[in-house]
Amino acid sequence: MNLSWSQQALTRRRTLAAATGLAAGALLPTGPALAAAAQYTNPVIWQDFADIDVMRVGDTYYASASTMHYSPGAPVLRSYDLVNWEIAGHAVPSLDFGAKYDLNGARGYVRGIWASSLAYRPSNRTFYWLGQIDFARTYLYTATAVEGPWSRLTTISTPYYDAGLLVDTDDTLYVAYGNTTISVAQLSRDGRTQVRTQEVFRTPSSVGTLEGARFYKINGQYYIFLTRPANGQYILKSSSGPFGPYTMRQVLLDLRGPIPGGGVPHQGGLVRTQSGAWYYMAFVDAYPGGRMPALAPVTWTADGWPVVQLVDGAWGTTYPRPAVPTPPRQVTPMTGVDTFDGTSLKPRWEWNHNPDNTRWSVGNGLTLRTATVTHDLYWARNTLTHRIQGPTSTATVQLDHSAMRDGDRAGLALLRDSSAWIGLKRDGGATRVVTVTGLTMDGNWNTTGTGTEVASAPVSGGRVWLRANADIRPGAPRPGTFSYSTDGITFTRLGPAFSMGNDWRFFMGYRFALFNHATQALGGAVRVTRFEVSTP
Question: How many CA atoms lie within 13 A of 274 on its CB side?
């Protein structure tokens, strides 16, 4: 389906009719003064981190994002300047919400961690993550450091859909949530139970759908920041307390974004720097790669409404860098080399559903022992994923396949609801390197294609290098290409280019994925001794 970005309503409950409107905002000055200033470029993170909730604690900025069916869930990002970010940890250590998140008789694709909230409570120096799962209940996790350990504090029977958590100045915890009908809940002092909940706003039919709540108290006023998926942002304001009444104002609608071919920046949250400047971190729909965070300055009107600062009538591709103290250190890059040293995976990695922890290990490389007997990669446990760096990047894997067994399949995939991979097939005692395309799902995330081999070559020895290049710029042709090497120096292209899908309904963007599964019997293994994501 080919829809314009303003027509692609990403509400999870119904499609929003297309609408028009004017982008509101003041223009930033242009000319030599602006050009001379240190600048940053949008997107500030060209990786898939959607539904951002952003905040500052002291001199450090933190953000959380959606991860759907990937585990661990709810990554926590850290920055010292709002521009350069690292992945510090995950607020949800395991998706222990039912067997479908283990690929055990059912699957949790496009379920799990949706838009959720991250907050800090100064009174007990604790971070809080809050989110609903499967429209059934809400989970609240806490930690005293974002690296963890995170532990579940409570489960609340009310599912706070697309929630925003507010720690008020009197230390009371409030949650704004809902789709179209927006409610506010008050939690108990210890955060474990709901004290009350009340509808505070019903979206006018002229606007359609509002969701993705973020909850703030600014200068004594209460604000609920809401998205109109996928092309608008609105805000509610109350001068009478957290339960309203609220009045509404449009922040932006159909605003040109900073990624060519991408969508309108929306959702996300507001954050204030140490010097008092305000910024809005939104995401931009930019499939096939996903939803990319973008940052813009915000000013406030005299009567207390936020205004996004525009450049030539659009969300700027560049802006002056935020004025912040000198960072205490450089953040850890989200790309580069991983040799899987140490005793745990680095936080840039997430599994496709929960892994079987008895069948993988790190230290002297990553060992993946077969955990599933299947011909369907979408059912295979212990597939390890890594976000693709945009606009183009290359993943290269050094793989020891000497312990594979007949029927095993191992390799490097471009993973989404339409997938392809390069890897090894071992059959009848012989090993071939192959490229496979045609792994597909339908709109209910059932497998409709398990793949077709489109190219192959024999390999000998026990080691091979596999490479996948991904061009995730929106538009055509969105190619993914595969190659292999037997010496790590000379690479041979294998198979035609794979055109990555750009439908938004899977929500998460393409990922590089390492996999090893059996088609006959368990017992085989591969070892990844080096993984690198590089950019041109």
Answer: 13
